[in-house]
Design a protein that fits this description.
Radius of gyration: 20 Å
CATH topology of the largest domain: Thiol Ester Dehydrase, Chain A
Number of helices: 7
CATH superfamily of the largest domain: Hotdog Thioesterase
Shape: globular
Number of domains: 2
Helix content: 10-25%
Structural class: alpha+beta
CATH class of the largest domain: Alpha Beta
Strand content: 35-45%
Strand order of the largest sheet: 1-2-4-5-6-3-9-12-11-10-8-7
Number of strands: 12
Length: 321
């Protein structure tokens, strides 16, 4: 099943697809294990859970927020069961809870809320930062391939970049770096990427949001690692020991975007410490419309161990979650 899943991951239509097995019960059809990951890609679990929840809400309601907790790593070899609970149905808002179960254990929990849109209400948004447009930026895999042309690349790094290029080329989401380590006037470091879905079907608006939820987990918590100066090739306090999502949230402020077009992901990291980091994200259309706001906290550990306690045991470990 794992090989089949890796092939299906190349298409966003099969990445998000779930099978309805009862009124409120759904089952994954494919699961993807990213390079050097502990478990199934978190964005895929979020998006499949949202597809399940969206199928259990009247079409008059539009997804406006989702709050997720990742409890256990998921294996790509066993389907995930998504159990949707119809928590509340009001006149303006509807709430759904989704439990994702694998091998009898809850691996993921999500609460999402849907609203009847009120476009006549006043609005406000932060402006989109000034960045090069997508046509002026290169694909992430092209950028890595250019690095490999340098003769002094370490063999281990060469092998890693080759694997990343292969994975990025097969990904259903295309990424272009718009600005790396951009420093705002108030001293805040930001990372900015253009992203869009490759070969996207003509999905209706509710499922465009599910695709965006998938992409919102790409290159997100890694911003905290970069700001801390952690790399895979580092040592001790500069080497990444773990990068793993704890929770993830999204708020939508547009119901009509098309992810077949490039969207700008603006990411910053307000705080990191104690083996954790929190990142914020804003997602814009090319025209500057703020589509969604994202937030995530994750385990961000360097390859260092905690002090030894009186009983001779380590107080912390870089190897366990």
């Amino acid at each position: 099943m794992a090989d089949k899943n890796q092939v299906e991951h190349e298409q966003i239509s099969t990445s998000l697809e779930v099978e309805r097995i009862d009124a409120n019960l759904f089952r994954s059809k494919s699961l993807w294990l990213p390079l050097q990951a502990r478990g199934v890609f978190g964005g895929q679990v979020i998006s499949q859970a949202l597809v399940a929840a969206t199928n259990c809400v009247p079409s008059a309601f539009a997804l406006h927020s989702t709050h997720c907790y990742f409890l256990l790593s998921a294996s790509p070899a066993t389907p995930i069961i998504y159990n949707v609970e119809r928590v509340r149905d009001g006149k303006s808002y509807a709430t759904r809870a989704v439990k994702a179960v694998q091998n009898g254990r809850i691996i993921f929990f999500m609460v999402c809320s849907f609203q009847k849109p009120e476009p006549w209400q006043p609005s406000h948004q932060w402006p989109m930062p000034k960045v090069p447009m997508p046509e002026e930026c290169e694909l992430q895999e092209t950028r890595f391939a250019r690095i490999l042309e340098q003769p002094d690349v370490h063999p281990r790094m060469r092998e890693y970049f080759q694997a990343v290029i292969h994975e990025r080329t097969r990904s259903p989401i295309a990424l272009k770096v718009a600005a790396e380590r951009d420093l705002s006037q108030d001293g805040i470091e930001r990372y900015m990427y253009w992203m869009k879905a490759r070969s996207i079907p003509k999905y209706e608006a509710p499922f465009q949001k599910c695709i965006l939820a998938y992409a919102s987990d790409l290159n997100f918590i890694s911003a905290a690692s970069k700001i801390l100066g952690l790399t895979r090739s580092g040592t001790g306090k500069t080497k990444i020991a773990m990068n793993s999502t704890i929770d993830h949230a999204l708020w939508f402020y547009d119901n009509d975007f098309d992810f077949a077009d490039w969207l700008l992901y603006v990411i910053d990291c307000p705080a990191a410490g104690s083996g954790r980091g929190v990142v914020n994200g804003r997602i814009y259309t090319q025209g500057g419309k703020l589509v969604a706001v994202a937030a995530q906290e994750g385990v961000v550990r360097a390859d260092v161990r905690g002090p030894v306690s009186n009983d001779g045991q380590r107080k912390g470990s870089a190897a366990k979650l």
